[in-house]
Each structure stands twice: as C-alpha cells, then as structure tokens.
Amino acid sequence: MFDRSKKGENALLIQPHFGKLEEDVLEEFGDLARSAGASIAATITARIDRPNPSTLIGSGKLDEVKAAADATGADLILVNHALSPGQERNLEKFLERRVIDRTGLILDIFAQRARSHDGKLQVELAQLRHMSTRLIRGWTHLERQRGGSIGLRGPGETQLETDRRLLQKRVEQLQKRLEKVEVQRTQMRRARLRSELPRVALVGYTNAGKSTLFNSLTGAEAYAADQLFATLDPTVRRIALPGGNVVLADTVGFVRDLPHDLVAAFRSTLSEAREADFLLHIVDAADPHREERIAQVDEVLAAIGAGDLPQLLVFNKIDRIEGAEVRHDGHDGVPDESRRERVWISARDGRGLDVLEATLGKRLGLQHVTGELRLPPSLGRLRARLHQLEVVRAETVDEEGWLLQVEIPIAEAEKLAAGEDGAAIQALLPEKLPEW
C-alpha cells in the first residue's frame, strides 16, 4: 500500500461524464472541493461509455490521472461520482493517493460546517453509514478463528468483524440520540403550532443567499458566507409582517444528486421545510442555470414530502445583474410551474424586502380589509360564503337585506371581488394595493 497524506489539501479533480459535459456541473464540483478546503491542482474529464466495474474509468484515463497527479504534486483525488467500495480501493491502490467520491466530499463539508449538537450527531451518523461499506481487512495476525497451536489461537472473530460490530453499535447509539432530538424538535414545533403562528421555511439551492435573507428579515446573526453548505443547522425566529407575525426557519441548502444517506440523516433539519405552512424558495437570480436549480430543489422537496406546499419564488442577488430592478411577477392563474409567483430582491442590499414582506403577508392571509357590507336578498349566496369563511364580525337584518361588519384577508377579498357577485366586495378593497 501507500502512505496516506495527512494534509490532503492539494486535490486533482476527476469529472466523469456519460455524454455531453455540462459546464455548470464542473463548476459546482470545483466549488464543492474549495468549500472542503482543497486547492485544485488540476481537473481531468473522463468520458465513460461503459463504466469499468473495478475502477469506473478506463485504464488509459487512469494512466493520464496518475501522470497528472505526479506532475502537479496532488495528494488527493476527488471523483464527482459515487464510487463503490471496491472501486475506491482499486483507484487508491493504482494512484497511490487517497480517493474520495462525491458522497465522501459532501460528508466532509458537512462535518466542517456542523455547529449544533444534533447537527454533529447527524453528520457522524451519515459518515458511519458511508464508512460501514468501506471497512477493509486488517490485523491479519489476529484472524485465526479457532483451533491451532498454543499461543496462536485468535480472538474468535476477525478484526474486520470486530470493527463492523463496534461501528454498528455506535450507529444504533446515534440513532437513539437523534430520535430524542427529533422528539424535542417535535415538541417545539407543537408549541409553535399552539401559538397559531404561520410557519414559513426558507429553502433553495445551496449558496442562493438563504441565510443572508434570513438575517435581513429577522435581524439575527446566522452564519452566512459565499460558499456551499454554509448553513447546516436549522435556525428559527419570529418576524413581524404587515398584518401579523410568522415563524421563519432557515434550512440546509440543497444540491444536485444529494446523497440519500444525507437526506435520511438530516431529517430533523429537513422537517422544518416539510412541516411548514409556506415555503420561500430562494433562487440565485444571477445564476445562468437558475431554472435547472429550481427543478432540482423541487425534486428534493418532493422526496422529503414537501412538494405540494405552497411556494413563493424569491429571486435573490439582483445586485449582481446590471440594470435589474425590484419587481413582483404575479401568478396569472395558469397551472404551469414556470409561471409561479416571483419576487426579485437583493437580500445583501436590502432592496425589495418590503415587497417580499407585503407579498408574503398577502399570501398568508395576514393583510385584512375591514368594512361594512349591505347585501340585498339576491346576494344570499355571497352572504353564505362570507359566513363559511368566518369573516363576519356582526350582522343585522332589515327589510332591505343584511348589513354585515366584515374583516376579510385581502387575498380572499380579491377572489370574491373577481366572482359573479363581486361588485359588493370590490368597494371594500383599497384603491391602491401595496406597491410591488
């Protein structure tokens, strides 16, 4: 074997691809490597028509990687693809350097970023599950199972079996501790439910600016940086919006091909998104691949059971787009994902936060209109609908019909005003709604 480098910071990147190589995939892989603290010595792309079962890439490309690693002094090989335990060991043996696949790289970043007690437990659990498939045979001088001469009998099991047993025991301990953490989080969420405050979760692709927006809206000091997975631990704060208060939660960022073990281990963090009433889907407006990022986040949301929750797309970082202005693109009623309601803001500069708050308050039904409605007998159906919505505060009856004192969320009032009997409601709406 070879002596593993203790530093492992000078990395050679291998980008396998099975067809046309997308430039943003390579760029994201480089960002992941730098986020882990590696300096990139070189990047090699490897087209794969038929994956090699023992090394993933072919022998010719392996020679090229070995030569490049020797020339650049790289002491670490990062592969942007999931490797089987056998492939990882075979690559290490041939290249004589430590090899880490995409899952291992993301796990390393998570291990660096976790700050809270439960976040560290979640990372350790994911690491152990990943490691359990990569234990290799060791301590062969102790492996005699039974029998033999005096002094040569082994401990009754191989060191590999001992390692697996100890690892499994630790996994079970972590699972029990995380179950307790989940119970505590559930109790906290129930307390928020009893407060009857709407719950809003920030979700989005990693490095879209969620934590910066969270800090801008709440005045908190959650860690925010221009790097992938800057935030792992969920942070929850109460904020005031036009018309009322809501609970806002910042969550871990998503990324393409997020390893399933990580999704499972971070169920506590992701449950903030799954159990929210409303999602603010944060998008990097300056990212040329933003529509693909939106689709990738939607895919993860669907995987954790949050795909059907109402969303508002928040296009952040307009400060990076020349001439971009704050604006609000309303929902036109067409059931098309590309036509979802959007708000364009800059969390860093604070531009558009008032627009976002007004839009969110409206979507959550926090903004109300109050007034008096005179309904003739011919509008009995409208009266029944108002009672069904529980917006009638007082009612009197006379020979002309009904006189109602109502308090209606603006969003509901607009829907009623657009209906067949909406003329009576139209008078309640302000002449000028909040500026977008």
UniProtKB/TrEMBL annotation:
InterPro entries (alphabetical): G_HFLX_dom, GTP-bd, GTP-bd_M, GTPase_HflX, GTPase_HflX_N, GTPase_HflX_N_sf, P-loop_NTPase
Cellular compartments annotated: Cytoplasm
Hflx-type G domain residues: 198-368
Annotated positions binding GTP: 204-211, 229-233, 250-253, 316-319, 346-348
Keywords attached to this entry: Coiled coil, Cytoplasm, GTP-binding, Magnesium, Metal-binding, Nucleotide-binding
Similarity comment: family membership: Belongs to the TRAFAC class OBG-HflX-like GTPase superfamily. HflX GTPase family.
UniProt function note: GTPase that associates with the 50S ribosomal subunit and may have a role during protein synthesis or ribosome biogenesis.
Protein known as: GTPase HflX
Lineage of the organism: Bacteria, Pseudomonadati, Pseudomonadota, Gammaproteobacteria, Lysobacterales
Encoding gene (name): hflX
